[in-house]
Design brief:
The protein is α/β, with parallel strands linked by helices. It contains nine helices and six strands, in the order αβααβααβαβααββα. α3 (about 40-60) packs parallel to α4 (about 80-95) and α4 (about 80-95) runs parallel beside α6 (about 115-130). It is globular. The protein binds 3-methylbut-3-enyl trihydrogen diphosphate (2 copies) and magnesium ion.
């Protein structure tokens, strides 16, 4: 018994992974189980996100990247899409109000040009005003797709070549990484997907190369600090070799 206790304490005290990424999935099923509309599930999911982001800040996670809306999620009903955009807007207004107290840096991954001009302006303000904050950095993935991100980077590099500013043979992984939305941010150490699905759904395709994956059946609105701690404990039990031998 005392040995188990010691082991548990050691895991709890191990430093948190520097970069955690989460596919916030299961909102719709959570609502359906309760006979509620899907948008109610998204509202509950937004609450979970607030709680989990605070917990990440408390335990010293440096980067938290969350998948909020994919390039494929436009297939959903206009009502649902509007509901999600409304929740994002509300969260960003709130973030602006508490920004100087929270000191959370907020960045965006995704093609924001398809969002309403109001939401785009709000994203720019949040990004600008939180730029110098040094607490956890939250990367909100909105209209994000891993393939879209890679294509965008490839087009940027091709344009540079066409303009005579770059040479194709000089392209390396570091240069290409620098053209992604995640430029300058280390790859995720741990990718969490709740809701029982075991797939990547176009999330961080390039950056996930050596991430550890954690899947759980818990639906995102029911996810919380204890579940995050379990994911981190599982992460600490893994042996990361990056292709080498340990
Ligand atoms: C994730 O929850 C939120 C978004 C994709 C925007 P879902 O809405 O996909 O929930 P399920 O998968 O239908 O339960
Ligand atoms: C992934 O969830 C996208 C987000 C959580 C934003 P989906 O619900 O869209 O993924 P699939 O359709 O089940 O693969
Ligand atoms: Mg889903």
């Amino acid at each position: 018994m005392p040995l188990f206790h010691k082991k548990k304490r050691a895991a709890a005290q191990a430093p948190a992974p520097a970069h955690i990424a989460i596919i916030m999935d299961g909102n719709g099923r959570w609502a359906k189980k309760r006979g509620m509309p899907r948008t109610a599930g998204h509202a509950a999911g937004a609450e979970t996100f607030r709680t989990v982001a605070n917990h990440c800040k408390d335990i010293g996670v440096q980067y938290l990247t969350v998948y909020a809306f994919s390039t494929e999620n436009w297939k959903r009903s206009p009502d649902e899409v509007e509901g999600i955009m409304g929740l994002l807007e509300r969260y960003l207004h709130e973030a602006l109000e508490r920004m100087t107290r929270d000191r959370v840096k907020i960045e965006f991954f995704g093609d924001l040009s398809r969002l309403s001009p109001e939401l785009q302006a709000l994203c720019s303000r949040v990004r600008e005003l939180s730029r110098s904050f040094e607490s956890v950095q939250v990367n909100l993935c909105i209209n994000y797709g891993g393939r879209d991100e890679i294509l965008h980077a490839a087009k940027t590099f091709a344009a540079r070549c066409a303009a005579g500013e770059a040479r194709p043979e000089a392209l390396d992984e570091e240069t290409f990484s620098g053209l992604l939305y995640s430029a300058g941010i280390p790859d995720p150490d741990l990718i969490i997907r709740p809701s029982g699905e075991q797939r990547i759904s176009n999330f961080l395709l390039w950056q996930a190369a050596y991430a550890e994956f954690y899947f759980t059946d818990v639906l995102w609105p029911d996810f919380g600090p204890a579940e995050l701690d379990r994911a981190i404990a599982a992460f600490h039990g893994r042996s990361r070799r990056f292709g080498g031998v340990v």
